[in-house]
Amino acid sequence: MSIGKVWLVGAGPGDAGLFTLKGLEVLNKAEVVVYDSLVGQGVLTKIPDSARLIYVGKRADKHTLPQEQINQVLLKEAQKGYRVVRLKGGDPFLFGRGGEELELLTEHGIPYEIVPGVTSPLAVPAYNGIPVTHRDFCSSLHIITGHRRAGKEYDINFRALVDTKGTLVFLMGVAALHDICQGLLDEGMDPEMPAAILQKGTTAGQKKIVATVSTLEAEVKRQGIQTPAIIVVGKVCALADEFNWYEKLPLMGWKVLVTRPKNRSSRTTELLREKGAEVLELPSIRTQALEDQRALYQALDHVSDYQWAVFTSPTGAEIFFDELKHRRMDIRSLAGIRIAAIGEGTRKILEDRGLLADLMPEIYDGDCLGETLAKELKGGERILIPRAKKGNENLARLLKEAGGVVDDIPTYETLYESSSLIDMKKEITDKNIDCVVFTSASTVKGFAESTRGADYTGLTAACIGKQTKAAADKLGMETYMAEKATIEHLIRLVEEIKHKKERE
User: Across residues 378-398, what is the average pLDDT?
Assistant: First the structure.
């Protein structure tokens, strides 16, 4: 058996957008992923389904596995010949014990690579409007761990830190806040020196408290703070309110769940993140082409007999063209056939393949598509509908009633999905989700399937259309519907919901 390899990969501070391109490249090829509790949920969702997962915990003094055992896990998995990714919050070499893990690997001749991660001492202050260096205020940056082993004294030279006159960033220091502030004051730091504590930076849980070294502890007791959080001390903290760019984004502070299939979620996620939301991508469905496409092939053998081809989803359009290619046919085969598309997403798929839609309903759902096309029929037209196995039956019925001869052919099926990494039911129960975005009734049904028994009454849902909203209504969610069935209008709806709730 050939020997494997280990990659120590920094996952960044939480925002999935800060995960590096190389980190994602390596993760996509992983066979085994060893991860801890500080890895952001957005990064966890990028772990390939094929990878075997090993959770090793690590938060404060509550470790699922001691560090020595984690080292052994990496060694044993690599010795079995696997591609092993050790996924760590932040950067592997900044208080991440990456060096300890490498010692054992080096001793046994295991090859490894390091993929640095965006580290919280830089990213979290940046997301809070604090530049850790500034020519007018300081010329140095010092990063210190506030963590100490049980029964041990803090190994911090506060006198030396005060003398640097630079920016000080303390990691894992919430429990030691009193000792840190007092230690700096005892060594002569100006009591009016600006200081801040920054909670869950780069995520929806981000919160900052800006005070002074002498008042920070009292402000934390008054306002409250959650871990993980970092402490920043220095004149640059005074710039936090002036440079608070992240807080000005319209969806900052909101955690939004996107449920559409992986291959359809990128645009939705991109737009939500641009608005400042923390996006959790957890597809509730996936689509899969049917193995038996004989019915479609029979239709394609006589495709010139059709007057209309009706596409009810982007997936249906893509699979149709895949099978067309499989039959050694191209768009010339569709010459003279009029094209109907259910909405903008489907229309774009068609346009990308050189076809312009002749008809698209004002409201993007199956019923409206059927009603709109029915008005165009004179009777006797042959109509091809390549669709999902469980599609909208009203569409075919409406067209038949208008005199159409309909070949309603299933080409793919919709399967429900759930995450093995994130307990979605717990997320709902703990009210960690501010809004869930649904782009079809099937995503609602898939979501319900993966969270059976959950109480949905406190869950806010942004729905793309009336059928989707109706499905969410049945679950007792607080539902809202986009003005138009487009992703852009859906994102606008999420903003409107947030503003409404802030006014209440």
Answer: 89
